[in-house]
Amino acid sequence: MSHLPAAAFEAVWWDGDAVGYIDQRGLPHDIIRKRAHGVDEIVEAIATLAVRGAPCIGIFGAYGVALARASTDDDSAFASAAARIRAARPTAVNLAWAVDRVLAAAQSEHLSEARAIHAEQRAVDRAIAEFGAALLPDRCDVLTHCNTGPLATGGDGTALGVIIAAHRLGKRVHAYVDETRPLLQGARLTTFELAAAGVPATLIADAAAAATMREKKIAAIIVGADRIATNGDTANKIGTYQLAIAAAHHRIPFYVAAPRSTIDFALTGGDGIVIEQRAAEEVRAFGEQATAPRDVDVYNPAFDVTPGHLITAIVTEYGVLRPPYQEAIPDLALRPRLLLEFAR
Ligand code: MRU
C-alpha cells in the first residue's frame, strides 16, 4: 500500500488535451493515473466511479465540458456532449451545477470557469473544515461513512476534512469508519486518507455502526452529502439514513458537511431527489468473488435520503446551519459567492 499523503496528489486535473484523474477503483493498493480524451471516457469514468464524490464529479464534469468545447466547433455536437456529461450520474447535484456553470460562461472562458470551480472547491473545503472542527470536542471518537476526503472533492474534503482539521488543531480525534458496502469507499478510500493524514482510525462493518455508537461512546457522526433540499433533507451514500436514526436513538449529534453547490435550491423536500440505482452485481459479489446465487433479485440504491429533522447541523463554507432549515437554507441562495479572492 502506498503511503503518499492523500492531499499530495490531485484526484482530477486539466491535462492539456485531456482530463487527468486517479482511477479510484484501484485504491488503496494501486495509484493509477489515467487521461480521459473525450466525452465517452469522461462519462464512463463518472458512471463507473473511477472518479466519484459529489464535488469531484462536478469538477471533472466541468473539465469534461471544456474538453468537449475544445474538440468541436459543431454547436449541436457540443450541446449533446455536455448533456451526456450532465446526466452521467443523477443524484449528486454538483455535477449538473458545475456543467451548467461552465455552459453559462462565454465559450472562450469554459476552461477558466472549470479551473475556477476547482480552485473554489479547495477554498470552500478549507472553510468547511474550520467551521466543522470547532464543533468537535477536544477528545472524541467520531463515526463517518463513505468517503468525503480529498479524493471525493478535489480539495481537502468535507466531512473528512473536518476530522483531519480537528486532528491538525491538536484535538485527540479517533475516527470509526464504516466500510460502506457495496463498493467499500470507507474501507478503501477513507481509511487510506486518514492514514495519510495521521488520524487514528478503526474500520468497522456497516452492520456494527449502531453497536459502535453505544459501546464506543461516539461523540459525533459526520457525513457528506450529494444533494440537500431546502428543508434539510439530505441524499448521501446508502446507509446514511440508518446512521441518522441510530444517532437520534443514542442522542449523538449528526452533522452533514457540504458546500453550497450541493444544495438544490429548487427542491423543497427530499422526495424529489432522484436516487441512482446501480447494478445487481455490486451486491451479488464482494469484489470479484460471487457471494450470492447468480440470479438472486437485488435492490441496490446508491444513496438514501435522511430527513432534515434527524440532522443536528449542516456545516457549509458560510458557517454552521441549524434548524429550522426551511429558513436557514434558502437564505444561503442570496449570499454572494464566497472566497473567490482566495481561490483564484
Ligand atoms: O457513489 P459515491 O462514491 O460517489 O458517493 C459519494 C458519497 O456519497 C459522498 O458521501 C458524497 O458524495 C459527499 S463527497 C464530499
Task: Compile the SSE list and pairings.
Blueprint: E1 12-14, E2 19-22, E3 33-36, H1 39-47, H2 54-71, H3 75-86, H4 93-104, H5 110-133, E4 139-144, H6 150-153, H7 159-168, E5 172-178, H8 185-197, E6 201-204, H9 209-215, E7 220-223, E8 227-228, E9 234-237, H10 240-249, E10 254-257, H11 281-284, E11 285-286, E12 289-290, E13 303-306, E14 313-316, E15 319-321, H12 325-333, H13 340-343
Parallel strand pairs: 4-5, 4-7, 5-6, 7-10, 10-14
Antiparallel strand pairs: 1-2, 2-3, 8-9, 9-13, 11-12, 14-15
Bound molecules: 5-S-methyl-1-O-phosphono-5-thio-D-ribulose.
Would you kindly provide a written description of the structure presented here, covering whatever features stand out?
It contains 13 helices and 15 strands. The protein is of the alpha/beta class. The protein folds into 2 domains: 6-122, Up-down Bundle (Four Helix Bundle (Hemerythrin (Met), subunit A)); 129-343, Translation initiation factor eif-2b, domain 2 (Rossmann fold, 3-Layer(aba) Sandwich), CATH 3.40.50. The model is unreliable at 1-7 (pLDDT under 50). Helices cover 40% and strands 17% of the residues. The chain starts with 11 loop residues before the first strand and ends with a helix. The strands form 4 sheets. The protein has a 7-stranded mixed beta sheet, sandwiched between helices. It has helices at 39-47, 54-71, 75-86, 93-104, 110-133, 150-153, 159-168, 185-197, 209-215, 240-249, 281-284, 325-333, 340-343; strands at residues 12-14, 19-22, 33-36, 139-144, 172-178, 201-204, 220-223, 227-228, 234-237, 254-257, 285-286, 289-290, 303-306, 313-316, 319-321. It is globular and about 60 Å long.
